[in-house]
Amino acid sequence: MSIGTEDIIIEVKDVHYAYEEDGPHSLNGVSLRIKRGQKVAFMGANGCGKSTLFLCCNGIYRPDSGTILFNGKPVDYSKKGLLDLRSKVGIVFQDPDNQLFSASVYQEISFGPLNLGLPEDEVRKDIEQVIEYLEITPFCDRPAHALSGGQKKQVSIADILVMHPDVIILDEPAAALDAKHTKMVNQIVDRLADEGITILMATHDIDYALSWADEIVLMHEGKVLLQADPVTVCTNQEALEMTNQEEPAVLKLFDKLVKKGVLKENLRPPVSMGQLEQYIEHGV
């Protein structure tokens, strides 16, 4: 079944980008389409172009060639056009210290909407809602640089959420976080996805990508190697090897149980350990 144009929120057409004029390209003809409201995991070896692609989608980088469309229209690189784009396509950087710069958390979160010239009363109301939503109230008056890694990540997400985006891009959101704060950030991301926000996430955790994403995009040497549903991607051994990915643990275990005759061969591969446990409990 073909995808309606109205269902595509971001489209990338043959995009090339190099950091130096005569240097090698970080993006070598990337083409992909992102459907509205989807959760998409981007995976690949370091240097494959994930972060560069994200910065192009947000308008921070302008492609050397090719086209990026948002809601069916080519990105407008005028000052006004970029402000409009960044209010709708927000990016949370891997290192929050590259994003946070204001004296206090409250000032940090208010910078974006005030920079757009929105009324202060409206901005204040939005900030209060986001602070409550992300449970930032206990440290909203503290300096951003004095926060823990998990708290900085919360504030980074709040920076974007207060702009009412259609798309949130997260570049390795769990990087340098402990298990507790990784779980907290994942729960925040799930709430945003449930509200219909399109989520693009770079991750090296293939087990998480399998259970979380609607689609996985595998990138290799500045191109899209494979874009498909998680099971299709995670069972493609050749593509996984090319991008330095391991097969998810749940699929390895599932294969062993099928070969031993514990589970039937015609079962849909499970996307989580919980689903695999249900198969075993029901003896299917």
UniProtKB/TrEMBL annotation:
Keyword ATP-binding tagged: yes
Subcellular localization(s) per the UniProt record: Cell membrane
CDD domains: ABC_cobalt_CbiO_domain1
Domain annotation ABC transporter: ranges: 10-246
Record flagged with keyword Cell wall biogenesis/degradation: no
Keywords of this entry: ATP-binding, Cell membrane, Membrane, Nucleotide-binding, Translocase, Transport
GO CC term (a single one): ATP-binding cassette (ABC) transporter complex
Function: Part of an ABC transporter complex. Responsible for energy coupling to the transport system. Probably part of an ABC transporter complex. Responsible for energy coupling to the transport system.
Protein family (similarity comment): Belongs to the ABC transporter superfamily.
Protein name: ABC transporter ATP-binding protein
Organism this protein belongs to: Faecalicatena orotica
